[in-house]
Amino acid sequence: MENTQLSGWIEIGKIVAPQGLQGEIRVYPETDFPERFEEPGTRWLLYPGTTEPQAVELISGRYLDGKNLYVIQLAGIESRSQVDELRGCKLLVAESDRPELAEGEYHILDLIDLPVYLQASGELVGKVVDVLSAGNDLLEVEFDAEFLQQQPSKNHKKQTKVLIPFVMAIAPVVDLVAKRIEITPPPGLLEINNS
C-alpha cells in the first residue's frame, strides 16, 4: 500500500522523530515494501508546505519490531538537531519506481476512485476513496447517491461510507483496465448503520 498526493510521486513514509544522537531518523511507513527503507539509494524529501521534493541519499535502514517504524540514516544528517529540522517531512519515491507486484497485489493509487459494483446485480455501490491497513486491507467506499437512496434507513443521518475487507472472498474482481471492482458482500456488510 502506498499513497500519493503529488503528481508523479509516491509517499513512502513520514519522518516522526530522531533515534538516538547520531542523526538516525524514525520514519512511520506508508508502504508495504520494506526495501523502500532498507536498500540504499536516492529518495526524495518533501518539506511541509512545499511542493518541490529534494533528493536525499538513503544510506541504511532497519525495521523497529513492535513499533511499526523504520530507523533510517540519510547522507549528511549526523545529529539529533538536524533530524529535528526534518520532523513532518514526507519521504517520496518517483511514481516510475514502483516495485513489481505479485498477482493479487495492487498499489493504493490504482484503487482510489475505482467504482465498486455488486457482482450479482451489477448495481453501482459507490467508489473507493481510501484504503486502510488493518491486518487485512480495508477499502473505504463512498456510497453512490442513488444506491444510498434505495437503502432502508430509520434515521435521517445516513452513513455515507462503508469499510469493505479487501479479500478475495468479498472483492473477487479487481479490473484495473475496465476500472471496476466487483464485490460479493456477506449479508449485513452494506446495511446502513443507523446507530
The low-pLDDT segments are none
What is the N-to-C succession of helices and strands? EEHEEEHEHEEEHEEE
What is the CATH H-level superfamily of the largest domain?
RimM
Provide the number of structural domains.
2
Main sheet overview: 6 strands, antiparallel, barrel
Rg on CA atoms, Å: 20 Å
Q: Which class of secondary structure composition applies to the elements?
A: mainly beta
Mean pLDDT: 85
CATH domain topology of the largest domain: Elongation Factor Tu (Ef-tu), domain 3
Can you give the helix content as a percent range?
A: under 10%
CA(first)-CA(last) distance: 31 Å
Tell me the strand order in the biggest sheet: 1-2-5-4-3-6
What does the overall shape look like?
A: elongated
- The helix count comes to 4
CATH top level of the largest domain?
Mainly Beta
- What is the percentage of strand-forming residues? 35-45%
Care to count the β-strands? 12
The second-level CATH architecture of the largest domain is Beta Barrel
List keywords for this structure.
six-stranded antiparallel β-barrel; SH3 type barrels; 2 domains; mainly beta; elongated; Elongation Factor Tu (Ef-tu), domain 3; 10% helix; 195 residues; 12 strands; six-stranded mixed beta sheet; 41% strand
Describe this structure in words.
The chain has 195 residues and is mainly β. It has two domains: 9-94, RimM (Elongation Factor Tu (Ef-tu), domain 3, Beta Barrel), CATH 2.40.30.60; 108-183, SH3 type barrels (Roll). 10% of the residues lie in helices and 41% in strands. The protein has helices at residues 35-38, 80-84, 108-111, 145-150, and strands at 9-19, 24-29, 41-46, 54-64, 69-74, 90-94, 115-118, 124-134, 136-143, 161-165, 173-175, 180-183. The strands form two sheets. It has a six-stranded antiparallel beta barrel with strand order 1-2-5-4-3-6. A hairpin with a 4-residue loop joins β1 (9-19) and β2 (24-29). The radius of gyration is 20 Å and the shape is elongated. The model has no long low-confidence stretch (mean pLDDT 85).
